[in-house]
Amino acid sequence: MSAIIKVSNLSKQYREVKAVNDISFTVNTGDIYGFLGQNGAGKSTTIRMLLTLIEPTAGAIELFGRNLYSHRKEVLQQIGAVIEKPDLYKYLTAYENLSLFAKMSGVAVTDKKLMDQLEQVGLTERAHSKVRTFSQGMKQRLGIAIALIHDPQLIILDEPTNGLDPQGIADIRNLILHLSRHQGKTILVSSHLLHEIELIANRMLIIDKGKKIMEGTVAELVDPARTMVHIEVTNPQLVMAWLQNSRWSACVQEQNNNVILLRMNKPQVPELTAELVNAGAHIMALQPQNSLESYFLSLTTENRHVDTFTN
């Protein structure tokens, strides 16, 4: 499988702040590649270097097998990108925006091509509505339509679901999956919403404070032996006493009022549940959490801004 993006030892220094610190990663043809990290981790800085919007302090970037800076024009012609919120002309319609950006890109398009593009992002019925009347989710979808107008091989989306409601997030998620499965696009998508990336990405990179923590597939990154089990019971003292004298004692992590937290291998959860019931535990809820989010938090030492990981 050929590499679309190959980043080697990339760094960006702003005076005393190292925004990106010696990261390397590879995005292969056909990937939906998740670029994950907390706000301020260095995701947007890295993407801006991939698009030549800022220069790296050190390191190398190859796109489509070519050095980015010596083949800048040819390389960027094969990329479509939406960086944060798309820049749109609010007093023009969706159709007029798309037509204008196509002309600015030097792309000759027909009326049918423009309408097909709007249909692809679910905006056919609003093609002739002013963009100022659009929700943020609709603006994001129009931005993606603009990024696709020249039929790029690689799509780069920087925090495409920022500020969207649950329906808007779902719309963007489904659009990304459609572009990958039905059009064969390679997609790099950055986000701090780990659950969303877990739903769509086949490979991903986790960074923190500008440093690469881990790269791989969801299956590789989420170890079933690290499953966290939250148990809510009405008789916590009895249950804790039983757990501490059982084979599960080493799994107990903490107790907070009626909630007991254990770490264990996921296939063991049914055995634990059955034994708890037999021991007289009054279980109100039992929830295994083996998500990318819990894995990420287990890797970061300071667990800064945990609230940014909730939808």
UniProtKB/TrEMBL annotation:
<dbReference type="InterPro" id="IPR027417">
    <property type="entry name" value="P-loop_NTPase"/>
</dbReference>
<feature type="domain" description="ABC transporter">
    <location>
        <begin position="5"/>
        <end position="234"/>
    </location>
</feature>
<keyword id="KW-0813">Transport</keyword>
<dbReference type="InterPro" id="IPR003593">
    <property type="entry name" value="AAA+_ATPase"/>
</dbReference>
<dbReference type="InterPro" id="IPR003439">
    <property type="entry name" value="ABC_transporter-like_ATP-bd"/>
</dbReference>
<dbReference type="GO" id="GO:0005524">
    <property type="term" value="F:ATP binding"/>
</dbReference>
<comment type="similarity">
    <text>Belongs to the ABC transporter superfamily.</text>
</comment>
<dbReference type="Pfam" id="PF00005">
    <property type="entry name" value="ABC_tran"/>
</dbReference>
<dbReference type="GO" id="GO:0016887">
    <property type="term" value="F:ATP hydrolysis activity"/>
</dbReference>
<keyword id="KW-0547">Nucleotide-binding</keyword>
<protein>
    <submittedName>
        <fullName>Bacitracin ABC transporter ATP-binding protein</fullName>
    </submittedName>
</protein>
<dbReference type="InterPro" id="IPR017871">
    <property type="entry name" value="ABC_transporter-like_CS"/>
</dbReference>
<keyword id="KW-0067">ATP-binding</keyword>
